[in-house]
Maltose 6'-phosphate phosphatase (Brevibacillus laterosporus LMG 15441), 261 residues
Amino acid sequence: MRLLTLNCHSWQESNQQKKLEELADAIAEHAYDVIALQEVSQSIDAVVIKDHIKADNYAYLLLQELQKRGLDDYRMVWEFCHIGYEIYEEGVALLTNLPIIKQDAFYVSKHTDTSYWKTRKVIKATVEYHQKCISFFSCHFGWWEDEEEPFHAQFERFIKRTDNNELTFLMGDFNNHAKARGEGYDMVKGQGWYDTFLLAKVRDEGSTVQGKIAGWDRNQEGLRIDYIWVNQPVSIQESKVIFNGTNKPVISDHFGVDVMI
């Protein structure tokens, strides 16, 4: 099984269509089984295609690009989290080429007003893989030091909605640096989750953000804030950063994480 997580920063990138196509090319090349995306946006005033998905939904357009490449078996689930940049409905998504057995979404923030940018949701898809059910979450959590919406409170709400008996992967942008002791990374690890980066037999340096980005305005170093966690120890062949300019072109203000199980 191969997994990818990426904060795609959708509709905030220059040459956005080209970068969307480069993401589709990488998915076609690596045949990811599950893809978790964050900052997956659609215009507020765009035409509704189906249910709550609109014509310029980034994940929906990615599916169209995959179909152009002959990949007709991918399906998506997407959840609207909050208004972004005044004109977008920003959300989280999961794409998979595996059968989706069930799906769910819920708030992890105390705020539930979607007009407020700190409102956070996670989305879940349970898929069937070799006659086994495995659950995947795509998440975009807040910051550890945020006085109004701290990470620790959001993660506690998340934990209450998980089942330890079910093999589960938690993928996304955690806004918590792996080297910051006593903060979000240590909290997740302390709750019994395994960092697939550390489990991997082969891994690279791991940083998914370089320099200053939104929410990390004073950053001047490489940060590892995007993760794929698993609630049971599994054999990880490789963990590597992708879309970092060395392994595929940069397509977002975050790099992606590519894990082979």
